[in-house]
Amino acid sequence: MIAITDRKINEYMMRLSFEGDPLLLEMEKIGRENDFPIVDRLVGRLLYLLTRLKDPRLIVELGSGYGYSAFWFAKALGRGRVVLTEYEEANIAYAKEAFRKAGLSKKAEFRVGDAVKTAAGYGKIDILFIDMDKHQYLPAIKKLLPNLNRNALVIADNTLWYGRVTEKLRDRDTLGIKKFNEYMFKNPAFFSTIVPLRDGVLIAYKVG
Amino acid sequence: MIAITDRKINEYMMRLSFEGDPLLLEMEKIGRENDFPIVDRLVGRLLYLLTRLKDPRLIVELGSGYGYSAFWFAKALGRGRVVLTEYEEANIAYAKEAFRKAGLSKKAEFRVGDAVKTAAGYGKIDILFIDMDKHQYLPAIKKLLPNLNRNALVIADNTLWYGRVTEKLRDRDTLGIKKFNEYMFKNPAFFSTIVPLRDGVLIAYKVG
């Protein structure tokens, strides 16, 4: 396990990235205190910027936790909405309450259950955000390809998997991430890049 | 001077990023052989993706070198065009020839001379790309703010300045980059983020 980005650089970028939203700050605190893996503020800001740029009608998340990334998406949305999917009812309940407090409830749908099965019920997805079990990334994108809109964005978290992608590990999560990355970079349906923020964010633009 | 992103991670991302365009490969080779600082393939791919997403009519570069970043922009453009600005006539001559060979000449304007003065002659800039002398970043963006279109993107290279932004250095380039970053993150006209690819790419979305 290696530091993907130099620690001082991360601190510098965090100092620049002032945050005044009390709900985001609370979610970041809960993440730290419970060691719950959220995308963090720097990735959250990247999601916000990409959403402003894309102006999507429909964002679907595969694996929403208690709603930190979805909160960034919702704040950036114009007319669109974000669908949260999550197994844990308690997490979704927390997200619902945070969105209600922020006046963002109308921009979100909260779905408890299997992420991919839920997502498969939506068509013309403009942004698909993948942050579920790592060995499920590749089957998920293959299954949901027909559900993506023209010029959709696929954004996947943990695609550098704490540096394990550079090691000769054979566990199913490391292999899953490596196979997913190779698929996304080789598939001519996508133009892909990985941004080495936190644990690596793959961003893929659907060509056509 | 520190490695912003772990070397193995960079190598992993480069292995994924196959490139078959002989002109890009030639420009990368020239960069290595002459130690000429080009944005590199990973940043080039990010520029390509952002351009596809934004679909801009007008991109203006401040500091084009021999055209590597402009080449990525041009490949991604739909109906728009990219303006290259550069002091060195020999660099612009090289860029012109590369664009001609690639059939991209109609998507580009080649301007020799002062970058900011040239850029000031254009209005409704959709993407402003800054890669000139580092102490000039801040005066350049202040000067060109009225020339930016609604929801423009400002993309600036070298904004982590080989890690010097984290050190207590007082040279004008380090100070220039630090002041530029602070301005871009604090100015409510922009929503900014830095992507720690190569030497740090600041991406700012103009709000309104």
Q: How far apart are the termini of chain A?
A: 37 Å
Helix content of chain A: 40-55%
Number of helices of chain A: 8
Name the CATH architecture of chain A: 3-Layer(aba) Sandwich
Largest sheet of chain A: 7 strands, mixed
Q: What shape does the CA trace of chain A take?
A: globular
Order of helices and strands of chain A: HHHEHEHEHEHEHEE
* Greatest chain-chain contact: A-B, 43 and 43 residues
Average pLDDT of chain A, rounded to a whole number, is 96
Total strands of chain A: the figure is 7
Q: Any idea of the CATH topology of chain A?
A: Rossmann fold
Whole-number radius of gyration of chain A? 16 Å
- Uncertain stretches of 5 or more adjacent residues of chain A: none
Query: Structural class of chain A, please?
Result: alpha/beta
In total, the number of domains of chain A comes to 1
Major sheet strand order of chain A: 3-2-1-4-5-7-6
Any idea what the CATH superfamily of chain A is called?
Answer: Vaccinia Virus protein VP39
Question: Describe it for me?
Answer:
Two copies of one chain form a homodimer. With 208 residues, chain A is an alpha/beta fold. Chain A has a single domain (7-206), classed as Vaccinia Virus protein VP39 (Rossmann fold, 3-Layer(aba) Sandwich), CATH 3.40.50.150. Helix content of chain A is 42%, strand content 21%. Chain A has eight helices and seven strands. Chain A has a seven-stranded mixed sheet with strand order 3-2-1-4-5-7-6, with helices on both faces. In chain A, helix 5 (89-101) links the parallel strand 2 and strand 3 (108-112). The model of chain A has no long low-confidence stretch (mean pLDDT 96). Chain A binds chain B through residues 2-6, 8-9, 11-13, 16-18, 42, 45-46, 48-50, 52-54, 151, 153, 160, 163, 165-166, 181-182, 185-186, 191-197, 200, 203, 205, 207, and chain B through 2-6, 8-9, 11-13, 16-18, 42, 45-46, 48-50, 52-54, 151, 153, 160, 163, 165-166, 181-182, 185-186, 191-197, 200, 203, 205, 207.
